[in-house]
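Forwarding the complex inputs:
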Amino acid sequence: AQSVSQHNHHVILSEAASLELGCNYSYGGTVNLFWYVQYPGQHLQLLLKYFSGDPLVKGIKGFEAEFIKSKFSFNLRKPSVQWSDTAEYFCAVNADTGRRALTFGSGTRLQVQP
Amino acid sequence: EPEVTQTPSHQVTQMGQEVILRCVPISNHLYFYWYRQILGQKVEFLVSFYNNEISEKSEIFDDQFSVERPDGSNFTLKIRSTKLEDSAMYFCASSGGLAGANTDTQYFGPGTRLTVL
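Prediction (whole assembly, two chains):
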């Protein structure tokens, strides 16, 4: 079974700072990788996903993530955060065996200070 | 933009009672899911549903749980005899269900907070 680790539980940044949130997964086979965001009071929504091709994936709102297979990582980045990026960020995977069930990490709470 | 909706937003019940959580998936989606998040823990997969039957389920989804699509729009999760440890936020999700693709985006509802006393 796969597992997902997000080592940063709570990150506090000032506006315009750069962001990198770590995500590592544990699974011996091919995976599909997702980043979801949950803004305060809102539902989970997809930021970006990777399943094949260019390992650098661009998502909505200026976010990107890089899949590094050798490191089992899929870190989320944004060059310059805004106050509106304050949210909880979840990394998730599913096994590329046709299973649709997502396995989530524990989430990282990002607080951006104006 | 179409959204997944869930009712109620908060449900309080007594231990041993049955509860039904309701979801309206996005209308042209084919796959439906339930996840839950116990306070302070990870979001966990419970079950997926396609073509009127369960397609995947986790070890959490035991005989106390059942799912149903009673009509063309609703998708429900029933817990037959609730336990204290069933207290959690329950999320419904749906996806388009592209043939053979497990990469399609799952769209989540806002969740139902279930409190078992």
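The radius of gyration of chain B is 14 Å.
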